[in-house]
Amino acid sequence: MDYNKLAELLYPDIQKTPEDVEAEFPPRQLPEGAKVTRFAPSPTGFVHFGGLFPTTVAERLAHQSGGVLYLRIEDTDAKREVPGAAEALIRTLSVYGVSFDEGAILGEDGKICDKGAYGPYKQSMRGPIYQVFAKQLVREGKAYPCFTSEEELEELQQVNKKEEIKNTDWQAEAEKRRAEMLKRREFTMEEVEAHLAAKDPFVLRILADGDGEKKIRFTDLVKGNMEFPENDEDFVLLKSDGIPTYHFAHAIDDHLMGTTHVIRGEEWLPSLAKHLQLFRYLSFKAPKYMHIAQIMRLDEAGNKKKLSKRDMGANMDDYTRMGYCPEAVCEYVMTLLNSNYEEWRMQNPDKSYRDFPFNIKKMSVSGCLFDFNKLNDVSKNVISRMDAATVTQRVTEWAREFDPAFGALLDADPSFAERIFAIGRGGKKPRKDLATWADAKPYMGFFYDELLAYEGGYPEQYDRSDIRATLSAFLESYDPSDDMNVWFEKIKAIGQALGYTPDMKAYKADPSAFRGSVADISMFIRFAVTGKMNAPDLYTVMQILGKEKVTRRIESTRAGL
Question: Which of 210, 390, 417, 558 could form a disulfide with 471 if both were Cys (CB 3.0 to 4.6 A apart)?
Fold first, then answer.
């Protein structure tokens, strides 16, 4: 076979050589040890929580080393592409602080454009580049055309593993498929010329040189040392429309764009032999690979299942709607990625999660378990470290979109809202009432008459006459100008007069000796003012509400007893 002639027949319009293309993508000038990583999604829908994992790893590796993180849109499968998905993906990732140094970005008109010297960063716009390398592989006898109908191609490529397992003679079936593949390698130049003259479509297949009985040794940066069979499948490089498969496109792009580390899900491990073969055929140095375990969840029976796109928490846009702040989600991801993150956080409570020295060796090999309870704990810690002004702003922004009526209340008097959020904030042990911005309304709603709702009533064991007497006595002595100590001394005096001791030790030692304690007296007043048995510091609450509102609520509660 005259491979040079075959290459010219198949790709007569391709005049560039691989050397010409290489010259257009010179090596990056970066510090020693700098890593070049990428996020390379297909625009087929929303950003999955699992997608934030490799992106976070890629971002940390690149930026901790003084390297580059870029975004490449892998849109070669037009049938699966969702219009606007790529733009939505970029916007979503920006919310979670993923900043790309180059790649596909949104321009001022909201459309995708390129930033950087290694584009285009959309694979659909790189067709001629792939064909240059495809032609070279044909010229070297490493790839060949396959003139076949789309239906036959699909039937040949799809191997139903489940059916093979059911089929007792599955090995014979596999050998039959192998024989069919080998038969397609046999053709003459005259046959190729006839097909081309008839304008028959063809795909380009790799001429695999692997032996499925032999093993490849490989070191994955997460999984460690591995072995898997050599690739002996003549998989497709270019489809009949000239569009590359993922396998072919990613190998060329990762090389030309200078990618040093590829971070992706472990579901790509079965394809690794194909990719390593491609890098060898193309005379490229393969990047280092990190295959991350899948994100798992517990089902109702307590069994581990893959976090699917239908599960709550899979869609990154859900977190915005639910009111999670992006910093909390990112910090939660860090707790899953590195086992020593929480220890570091305890030692560095005021630092950004970006200051954490991310370490590949601390990543889990077996996978991570998604847990909303853990996310909420992380989120409470993150929000507790924010100042009142920031919390007010963020809650208000969220409420404007997802709870407009609540948002209007906050917007009507921002300083009032900020005073509320300042309660218990700061210091070594700040309050941790909020896991999400959506928690703000039930937490602080009682401050607003429009949202005040009394939860049930006073417990039955308390004498209503004691409650009425407490409320009346408090109104008689209440003076907003009192400092906290004077205010509390008055409450203790009210209790003592009614037989409720201020001595908590004495009360715990012998509860039967008293009608109750000062804690009960405080609860009587708290419920009348807030409608809750538990609420933030009552003195501060009253200072924010003001005398008129406090008095009105206590009088109303007393009248209803």
Answer: 558
